[in-house]
Write a structure and sequence with these properties.
The complex is a heterodimer of chains A (329) and B (259).
Chain A: H1 25-62, E1 73-74, E2 82-83, H2 86-117, H3 120-134, H4 138-164, H5 181-204, H6 209-217, H7 222-251, H8 254-259, H9 278-285, H10 291-321, H11 323-327
Antiparallel strand pairs in A: 1-2
Helix pairs in contact in A: 1-10, 2-3, 2-5, 2-7, 3-5, 4-5, 5-7, 6-7, 7-10, 9-10
Chain B: E1 5-14, E2 17-27, E3 32-36, H1 43-50, E4 60-68, E5 71-72, H2 80-86, E6 87-90, H3 102-106, H4 119-132, H5 136-139, H6 152-165, E7 170-174, H7 182-195, E8 200-204, H8 208-214, E9 217-222, E10 231-237, H9 238-243, H10 248-254
Parallel strand pairs in B: 3-8, 3-9, 6-7, 7-8
Antiparallel strand pairs in B: 1-2, 1-4, 4-5, 9-10
Classes of the chains: A mainly alpha (329), B alpha/beta (259).
The complex binds adenosine-5'-diphosphate and magnesium ion.
Adenosine-5'-diphosphate (ADP) binds next to β2 and α1 of chain B.
């Protein structure tokens, strides 16, 4: 037996070449697929926009009133159609605003409680329940709002009128409290709550333990730590969560259609009956609409489409402003 | 302002698991004390009992006493938040706040005490702390940039600046160099040398040369067996620990005859 060590040979394998294509096939395919998906989404959004504009034009040409400042909705009136989106815009934005004012703080509060304050058993139960609520169809919320919340909100409406009536929006001159913008807003708030809290909880639990301990070791109280270490870290995610909720509130159709007494008026007294939203208006009027009526509804849909795009763009902007500080971490 | 620490009969638990048992030791003001020992023997745990960070872990608690200039920080009328404000801590991995700029990181502890400070005052604290942490020259042009954009060694010095900006009485450091390269390690060791003029420093290290270089006193911890609580084997002036330790386990450990 020889004890000499053979020099290591390269064997039969080809020496590895450093030449060749820098981009490998997998990378190329992946890039192609992502590019294709991205373009497809843009094309679909563009196609929806063009379709809406195309179908909206006939009614906009026939309209004898100002589309943006008119509240009335009589597009099939002959010979002079009269319709506009003023009341719809008001009702949509106002109900969505109520939903946000109530839903965002409560939703984030629930998320924070689950992520920081609750013990593990309670946290997982609560997390499960919010996820479950997020999956409840909106017709259920609508029926519940109509049959349960409407009668029970009367007392609140009266209280607001009696004690906060000096603030115009809480005054109620009709002494009727059902089918109001406020009730619709509250139902929307409850609908967006699980979305907001489920997503916020997700980002709040992702705050690194080391960041939390850095704050505590500086002598932060629990709440100071939440504000110093958790909220800034989770802010982009919480904004996204709020925007998803806002999207649902702006576009919610059936629950609002059931609850609001559909009347195309601008009424700042939010506890009084009346008001309408884009989505509810479309759902309620679609079946009985004539050709111009359909085109008018599509024109209103186009505006809703534009509003949601604008809202999302603003949200992206807010998130991007802090992106630099997160990427470097 | 530097204070002495006396630990007496301290046991530290994670739930039902007793991680360290029966630790008693004293730490002189304005000195550097090193905790050495094999990993898992409870060095970090003991360190974290000194500023009541141990109990932020769910179900973790201690029994025994930790006296700060004679006062038990586990006493009934002591607020752990105030304890942590007077004792600074530097962690094993640099943990600057990722959403804050360099200067915001430095003053992060100052915004907590509710005192209003002028911009000029904050600026001077930022400069003083960064200078003390030997970081000022490297970052003075980019104080409004994210702290997370610095190198690991710079981030750790930023964390030190953040800890000393509030002028604590004691500085606890848990393996502050273990994630750093040798140059950054030397920079931090130099810094410890300067800081001990003002602060009582306790440093955990797995690096025995480092303990020998920076500390006056060394405490050796050991694990008697798997699943058993860690113990303090001996604490003595550093040169005696490294030249003639009284315990066989210490000698085995420092001479490398140890798993
Ligand atoms: N958060 C924790 N939960 C449960 N056990 C822990 C935790 N942290 C540390 N321990 C245990 O406590 C013992 C001591 O750990 P530690 O103080 O980190 O040791 P060292 O810093 O000396 O390496 C180890 O057995 C470790 O597994
Ligand atoms: Mg450790």
């Amino acid at each position: 037996m020889s004890t000499t060590v053979e020099p290591a040979t390269a064997g039969t394998a080809e020496p590895i070449s450093i030449h060749g294509q820098a981009v490998r096939r997998g990378d190329r395919i992946f890039r192609g697929v992502s590019l294709f998906a991205g373009i497809t989404i843009l094309v679909i959004i563009g196609a929806i926009g063009i379709f809406l504009i195309w179908r909206a034009i006939p009614s906009l040409q026939a309209n004898t009133a100002n589309f943006f400042t008119t509240s009335a909705w009589f597009p099939d009136q002959t010979p002079n159609p009269v319709f506009g989106i003023a009341a719809l815009t008001f009702g949509t934005l106002f109900t969505a605003a109520i939903a946000m004012v109530l839903g965002v703080p409560v939703g984030i509060g629930i998320a924070l409680f689950i992520a920081q304050y609750a013990d593990r058993r309670l946290a997982s139960t609560l997390g499960f329940v919010t996820d479950l609520l997020a999956a409840v169809p909106s017709i259920i919320f609508g029926m519940w709002g109509l049959s349960f919340l409407t009668p029970h909100m009367e007392g609140l409406g009266q209280w607001l009128n009696d004690y906060l009536g000096f603030i115009p929006i809480f005054r109620n001159d009709l002494n009727q409290y059902s089918k109001s913008i406020l009730i619709a807003g509250v139902v929307l708030a409850i609908m967006v709550l699980p979305t907001i809290s489920a997503l916020s909880r997700e980002v709040l639990t992702q705050v690194p333990r080391s960041t939390i301990e850095a704050s505590l070791a500086l002598g932060a109280t629990r709440w100071e730590m939440v504000r110093q270490a958790m909220f800034p870290f989770a802010r982009p995610g919480m904004i996204s969560a709020a925007m998803l909720g806002l999207g649902r509130a702006l576009g919610e159709t059936i629950a609002v259609a059931l609850i609001l007494s559909a009347s195309n008026v601008i009424n700042w007294h939010i506890t009084e009956p009346g008001g309408n939203t884009f989505a509810a208006n479309i759902a309620l009027k679609w079946n009985e609409a004539g050709p111009i009526g359909l085109s008018a509804l599509i024109a209103s849909g186009l505006v809703l489409f534009a509003i949601t795009l604008v809202v999302n763009t603003i949200a992206r902007g807010i998130i991007a402003r802090h992106a630099e500080f997160r990427e470097s971490s | 302002m530097a204070k002495r620490i006396d630990i007496a009969n301290l046991d530290a638990y994670y739930g039902t698991f007793k991680a360290v048992g029966d630790v008693s030791l004293s730490i002189e003001p304005k000195s550097v004390t090193a905790f050495i020992g094999p990993s898992g023997c409870g060095k970090s745990t003991v360190l974290r009992t000194i500023n009541r960070m141990h109990e932020v872990i769910p179900r973790a608690y201690v029994t025994g006493q930790v006296l700060l200039d004679g006062e038990d920080i586990y006493g009934p009328d002591i607020d752990p938040v105030n304890v942590r404000r007077t004792i600074g801590m530097v962690f094993q991995r640099p943990n600057p706040f990722p959403t804050m700029s360099i200067s915001e990181n430095v003053v992060a502890g100052l915004t907590l005490d509710g005192k209003k400070r002028s911009k000029a005052e904050l600026d001077s604290i930022v400069e003083r702390s960064l200078r003390q942490a030997n970081l000022w020259e490297e970052v003075k042009e980019r104080l409004d940039r994210p702290g997370g954009g610095l190198s690991g060694g710079q981030q750790q010095r930023l964390c030190i600046a953040r800890a000393i900006a509030v002028q604590p009485q004691i500085l606890l450091m848990d393996e502050p160099c273990s994630a750093l390269d040798p140059i950054s390690t030397l920079a931090i060791e130099d810094l410890i040398e300067q800081l001990k003029a003002d602060y009582t420093i306790v440093i955990v290290t797995h690096n025995m040369q480092q303990a020998a270089r920076v500390s006056e006193t060394t405490a050796f911890f050991n694990l008697p067996g798997v699943g058993q609580p860690g113990r303090l084997v001996e604490i003595a002036p550093t040169e005696r620990i490294f030249s003639n330790p009284t315990q066989e386990a210490t000698e085995d450990y420092i001479s490398g005859r140890f798993g």
